Amino acid sequence: MTTGPQPLALHDDRLFSSDPLQRAIARRLYAQVATLPIVSPHGHTDPAWFAHNAPFANATELLLVPDHYVFRMLYSQGVPLDALGIPRADGSRAEVDPREAWRVFAECFHLFRGTPSSMWLNHVFHEVFGLRVRLDASTADLYFDHINDALRQPGFLPRALFERFRIEVIATTESPLDPLEHHATIRESGWQGRVITAYRPDAVIDPEHEQFPSALQQFGELTGEDVHRWDGYLRAHRQRRAYFADMGATSTDHGHPTAATANLSRAEAARLFDTVVRGNASAAQAELFRAQMLTEMAAMSVDDGLVMQLHPGCFRNHNLGVFERYGRDKGADIPLRTEYVRALKPLLDRFGNEPNFQLILFTLDESNYSRELAPLAGHYPSLLLGPAWWFHDAPEGMWRFREQTLASGGFYNTVGFNDDTRAFLSIPARHDVARRIDCAFLAKLVAEHRMDEDEAAEVAIDLAYRLPRKAYKLG
Amino acid sequence: MTTGPQPLALHDDRLFSSDPLQRAIARRLYAQVATLPIVSPHGHTDPAWFAHNAPFANATELLLVPDHYVFRMLYSQGVPLDALGIPRADGSRAEVDPREAWRVFAECFHLFRGTPSSMWLNHVFHEVFGLRVRLDASTADLYFDHINDALRQPGFLPRALFERFRIEVIATTESPLDPLEHHATIRESGWQGRVITAYRPDAVIDPEHEQFPSALQQFGELTGEDVHRWDGYLRAHRQRRAYFADMGATSTDHGHPTAATANLSRAEAARLFDTVVRGNASAAQAELFRAQMLTEMAAMSVDDGLVMQLHPGCFRNHNLGVFERYGRDKGADIPLRTEYVRALKPLLDRFGNEPNFQLILFTLDESNYSRELAPLAGHYPSLLLGPAWWFHDAPEGMWRFREQTLASGGFYNTVGFNDDTRAFLSIPARHDVARRIDCAFLAKLVAEHRMDEDEAAEVAIDLAYRLPRKAYKLG
Amino acid sequence: MTTGPQPLALHDDRLFSSDPLQRAIARRLYAQVATLPIVSPHGHTDPAWFAHNAPFANATELLLVPDHYVFRMLYSQGVPLDALGIPRADGSRAEVDPREAWRVFAECFHLFRGTPSSMWLNHVFHEVFGLRVRLDASTADLYFDHINDALRQPGFLPRALFERFRIEVIATTESPLDPLEHHATIRESGWQGRVITAYRPDAVIDPEHEQFPSALQQFGELTGEDVHRWDGYLRAHRQRRAYFADMGATSTDHGHPTAATANLSRAEAARLFDTVVRGNASAAQAELFRAQMLTEMAAMSVDDGLVMQLHPGCFRNHNLGVFERYGRDKGADIPLRTEYVRALKPLLDRFGNEPNFQLILFTLDESNYSRELAPLAGHYPSLLLGPAWWFHDAPEGMWRFREQTLASGGFYNTVGFNDDTRAFLSIPARHDVARRIDCAFLAKLVAEHRMDEDEAAEVAIDLAYRLPRKAYKLG
């Protein structure tokens, strides 16, 4: 074991190849993208932060408790969630001194060696907080005090950080039931930061969500539509989409268990919806309804121009004991094998060649990159590939994404990086990793004489900045 | 954006590692294989080219219109197929000036950055046509004129190119219904180029092909057999296989949706065939019939010695709108997840240990390389592995093929490279990429002290030349 | 072809990157683990070797006949199993001079170029036997004589090799029906070598094993329990597990076709067992029974602390002709696509959060590393990841394992290396390969500034020594 505090450094060449030729090229490419503004078209930051601009509470509440990447690893090695103060399903919380929770984290920080969490966190410690010793048991208190002191400074308020991070635009994600009051507050505040929303209707689309009936009820109250009949339900979606678009949204997002789509007749869809509304839908009918709704959402996108995102293939809340005690989103979501070719055909049969339609596909099943997704995106004008996502947004995962999608999809059917995070302070770190990996990947192509360096420089800027602006209509 | 024409170069070390040690070894290995004759045992060039030796029409008709790798990428980024003059299903064609189509292509050439198409095309531009500036909007006309001028020279006639490319033997692919007249013409012409055929019976085997009934009718007329009865149908296959073998064929090729094989009794197979012939086959019966026919083809191979190739796992003509307007083979074929272990068992139970039987397996599902295909080929004497195919014949795909098949399959259960192309001019480029990647892969093994360099040199020659000759019985 | 004997060398830097920076780091990391004792928690050596300490017979019987990695490759290239003297199912054996078999092997040794077998064998030749020329046709006799001479020396007796190899502990694998007499002999002999057993109950759990009825009969006789009734059957398992634990076992091992688990009520399970015992189980019922038994084994592990290992996803004895003539385990086992997320849920719903329960998961389907296994192990406290296994324990496979599990699982949810071999002499070679690959992998992380070298050094020692001792409770 190491003894005492060790220095913490962020090397200028991190994530570049150690081959001197590739490294030199990567440096030159990176120099052109390092300070470009951050375009964050998909994420889960809380708009209330930017609406109210209140200080963050402390290191534990800011960096540990909300980050399931972090606490799932600790849990996997036997740390009880209660020891970290993770809130329970019933709203209660173990009485844990945040400093004690931070110490547990610090003692376990070696578990993250080599993982993206370690890279992101060290970036935050070093760049945001100016720390210069490594986190371990011996520096836990130093960290906790130092971070908490910083959080009381005006420079660490949400809007100040937003500006310091050079965020050009950030999208949050809201349910159709969300009044978007925080977005309205931001807009009315006169602050210039661009915080937009995205339409995420899963809660009012998934018949198997435990809150579907009450969500539907609310959906009707909010829109004044008869949402228990098919036509009214669709009208309610159109109405809310329009409101979201007014509040800056340029995209919708759909987190379904599979990529299944359907293309039912109006009468069939209405009948299915009746079954769903009556709470009588079987698992197969629930799946069919979600599938049909993807196609309905696509139809609305053709009309209103919102870019559609599909994030399928996750078994949510897999751990029964954790779900019962702590509820949803506690680090127990596990990827599933996912099929796209047959699943998307009904939707693509209708809208695959629509000039005004863009569907961005994500996957948690990397075996699809070269087999299904790159070939699909390399043919259909309506399809683009989202970046390496969630479990795969590590350097290795990003590299595999490029290696496995380049041949059939090229660079220009991809959309740049999504940070997809609620860990606000890590956003610069995550975009920096993505830019470095793309530059390292391009440097290899240049060093192996597959592309000229001037071309690679253009691609690097496209991936970091131009493609996300274009794909998400943020220009 | 770059301004004005940029130089076009093919670096001597392209595709080799930038690590100096690996690069030096790769150079030495490559020097031994660079100028070996091309053995092309599987492809789709048109035998009429070599029979009639007529000049190619122009750059667009030669390089753009027939190459679905190229136009699918343009289409994916919103270029209408009509703007390229792609023929429609009804035989009509948008009136497009080939020069205008070429300009569209040139303006979009950046879309191919990093893809194999860019490498192949630049190789053709540089090596075949002697161009020394990059293709872009500013050089589109220069390219179009230069290439068209060249195509009028005798050195650019098909046979002259065949010889210039040092092609030792090339296989085309024909249906059993093809009279092979072009092959006969070549043979009678006295020209020494070795152009052989391969037996591709899908059209008379797949009950779900829209032209199956008429193809069967023709099959009967051509062979004089009663092909609507099981015995006659099988005799017709044997007869045509013998004729193909007479015309040089050493192999058959089978492009089925799955790798399913079956082992029905004679009576069961005859009953199934009756159902198929009456047009009453369900999807499951059609699949079973294709499965049974693979085993029947294997039985014939045991007798006549034709090497069998299986190319499964593609969803053909996935884009409904494109299929309806432009017909088959318009860049909308998409790979499917594919299973081999259970699928092949019926066939292998009968012929897996036959000394006179060789089945070469291909895949579009790379997850099978290490899991199913290399272990199968590393055990069964009748099985060999075809190279990285179609969507996977890029440098990265070739590298993954070697990395994932080496441990269980070794080098000697693989069969060298297939170019599998109708883009005749790109054949040297494609073989060159394959040889370079194999040398780069071997150089890594040598540099990491897993193999001596004299062994690697032998393997390099085996992969480039000896193994395809042996596997396809072309020696 | 090379002419005459070539030198055989093991380079000090083998398997390290040829990049000078990475290589230098790898060397330093490796220096810390190169001579650590071997912890071999899972394998298939014969305890009789260590009990009786008799000399091995000859090169062919020691290195060729028992190693299906080796003879499957020869068989795949047309060498008959009889030519190697592989025993047949009926107990007979072709009369083959071991020297002749060895010559066949030597002539075919080039087939192994680049494979792990070649690396392991060359390590054995060089390090164990001191050979300094490469094996080929010209050196076959020299090898055969040299090895046979060595095997007659006291230094090549099993116990002497065990000590020379610095084996701290080795686990063998036995059926519940095994009396463990060899383990008893070892214990009584006073020899200090630690040879422990592991509980592998497949033969008395799998209703589809052809010897299940007789195995069950024996199981009852051995334990005195009424094993044809559910309660007695479970008691018999508990009794044998306790005996195995007495004989040093710290783990159980389960080689099922799939990872399916079940969670039936006691009454349902008892009814299912009755069906199984009567020999009436359908394929689905047999699968359900195996699934239920995994959960029962987990329940027993919670009580007795034996670590549970699950090795699913293999189609055993795929080659019908070879199975009929030569029986089981003749190199014809082929990996299958495997699912874990839904399959393990019943077991994990019961025991996934049990502090006293450890389940080590293996796979032959690498597509699961990043998709299912690393996310599962990176969340559940009860789950750990076994290393790259069987067809995947080559340098490339080990590298993929680390690359694809690091992000979600980290290093500390893995358990170090398993040699999983019956090829006793290759054990040091296999552990050396694993240590070198882990050091090379860590060196890349250090060279790319993702980890400091002092951290990497700690991880290297953890992976080579501390984690297997901890995961398998061998400390």
How would you portray this structure in words?
Three copies of one chain form a homotrimer. Chain A has 475 residues and is mainly alpha-helical. The first copy, chain A, has two domains: 20-54 and 157-471, Alpha-Beta Barrel (TIM Barrel); 55-156, uronate isomerase, domain 2, chain A (Orthogonal Bundle). Helix content of chain A is 48%, strand content 6%. Chain A contains 19 helices and nine strands. Chain A has helices spanning 20-33, 47-52, 59-64, 68-76, 98-107, 116-128, 140-151, 158-164, 181-189, 212-223, 230-246, 266-277, 283-304, 320-326, 345-351, 368-377, 395-409, 427-447, 453-471; strands at 38-40, 167-171, 195-196, 251-254, 307-310, 314-315, 334-335, 359-361, 383-385. In chain A, the strands form three sheets. Chain A has a four-stranded parallel sheet with strand order 4-5-8-9, with helices on one face. In chain A, strands 1-2-3 form a three-stranded parallel sheet. A two-stranded antiparallel sheet of chain A has the order 6-7. Chain A is globular and about 70 Å long. The model of chain A has no long low-confidence stretch (mean pLDDT 97). Chains in contact: A-B, A-C, B-C. Chains A and B meet through helix 15, helix 16, helix 17, helix 18 and helix 19 of A and helix 4, helix 6, helix 15, strand 7 and helix 18 of B. Chains A, B, C: InterPro entries: Metal_Hydrolase, Uronate_isomerase. Chains A, B, C: This is Uronate isomerase. Chains A, B, C: Its EC number is 5.3.1.12. Chains A, B, C: It catalyses: D-glucuronate = D-fructuronate; aldehydo-D-galacturonate = keto-D-tagaturonate.
